[in-house]
Amino acid sequence: MRSRKAVELRVALAGYGAIGKRVASLLDQGIEGLRLVAVSANNAARAEQHVATLRQPVPVLPLAQLAEVADVVVECAPAHLLPEIATPVLRAGKVLVTVSVGALLKAPELVDLAREHGGRIHVPSGALLGLDAVQAAALGEIYEVTMETRKPLRGLAGAPYVEGRQIDLSQVEEPLKLFEGSAAEAIEGFPANLNVAVALGLAGVGPENTRLQVWADPSVDRNTHIINVRSDSADLHLVIRNIPTDENPKTGRITALSIVATLRKMAVPLVIGT
Length: 274
Known about the structure:
By secondary structure, the protein is an alpha/beta fold. The protein is built from 11 helices and 10 strands. The chain has helices at residues 18-29, 44-51, 66-69, 82-91, 101-104, 109-117, 131-138, 160-164, 183-189, 195-203, 254-267; strands spanning 9-14, 34-40, 72-75, 95-98, 120-122, 142-151, 176-182, 211-216, 223-231, 235-242. β9 and β10 (235-242) form a beta hairpin. The longest helix is centred in the C-terminal third of the chain and has 14 residues, at 254-267. The model has no long low-confidence stretch (mean pLDDT 93).
């Protein structure tokens, strides 16, 4: 029998900030089965300057046109743009990879749209490890999921929760617990910081049942997540210390790598992990 050549997936990026540029650079270096075909950006002129430096420059297109040229669209934009980005992709039966998983809680109709038109939504593990183990444990019974997040002060600057309570982070000299509650509640106050907590919740017992603490900690220089899961199949204790990007301290360097790893799983014959 003659072997079939693997199909190359066409990838477009919706959003071209720190994450989008890093993903573009990685794809441009050459990833088996993946080809960058377009990007979209709020500042098209600036994006065009950057894509011109790639080995294989691609066009900068309006958001609505990405689904026309790509098989997979990666959302790495401000969370409020998720419905605008996702709707044409899912309506076309294409694949959406989103980092703004917290925004999905406000737009459950996107899951229905994907189901209706044969589209798919992928959520990368991003800043967390162990999501595959949590998903597996959820097939049995999970008793409890807790997460403690500690961030450098600059990583929490501008968060609605912080600004709404007029918390002066510059005056914080010792670890300060900002929030304690559910992951679903936390994403409202920290929309750019805690997509990881919502992803953990969706993998396990649901964001509303995932207990979370958020700390502003001047003693740490990395975004730190401590996760504990108790279940009838395994007890998990995970500690992740992510190095923030220079461009955006709210985002870890591993986020872009996780996106590319998610894309690569769609294109290779051997897939490790769920």
